[in-house]
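Z., the sequence and structure:
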Amino acid sequence: MTIKSTLLTSVLAAGAAFGQQPPAPSFEVASVKQVPPGEQQAWRRPVIGADRIELHNVTLWYCISYAYGMKSYQMFGPGWLREARYEIVAKAPAGSRRQDLPVMVQTLLQERFKLQAHQETRGIPALLLVPAKTGPKLKEAAADSGDGEGGAQVAMSASESGERLEIKGGGMSTLVNTLTGLLGRPVVDQTGLASRYDFILEFSRYETAGPNATGGFNEPPPLPPPPPGVEPGVSIYTSIQQLGLRLEPKTLPMNVLVIDSVNKAPIEN
């Protein structure tokens, strides 16, 4: 073989190696089991550590939301993803970091459930938080207000007809994040307010997020409906107006995840 052909062979080999995709990060060992339909499981707090996950009695909707970093309003797939339950325990390789785990869960879902999904942009119903015409009516928080560590304190309580949200030492980001979870729709701050505030919202649970907007990772469960015969409380939109703010509906382009295909029965251990 000539020097010229040897060099050409080396260049082609290097190019082929360069074009190969590195293997997707994956768990060292994983146990995946489907909970038999109708079999009640005791609730256990999910464990997401630096090198392992333990998800008990969870839905695939929850797992996909965690793996891809999506909220429920950003996901589109079959209804059973919110119903079937699974036990998933997995250990990552030594040296793994907590931020590596979502991609490993993606690999697990693709291997064990044959998940196929794609991302695209769609118009999503959202809400803009803006000042009312009369201007904001907010009480600025004292320096020591909040959780004692420089953050906001958020508390929820319920009555027969409605809900009570109390925020101490919270900025607008705290308010819009809480409203997003409650309403199951993205709420975007356009108030221009940069201070920290103490305020209370009392509102009807009729307008809080229903099952179709909840169930993902770090999302609150849907609130139960009021008992029969109980009058609905104040609209959350009215309650917001009492703070000198308002919520305006707006359709915004947003990145979403579309589940193309997925198996209900996993490839078990």
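The first strand starts at residue 29 and ends at 34. The helical segments are 3-19, 60-68, 101-112, 172-183, 236-241.

Let me know what you think.
H.
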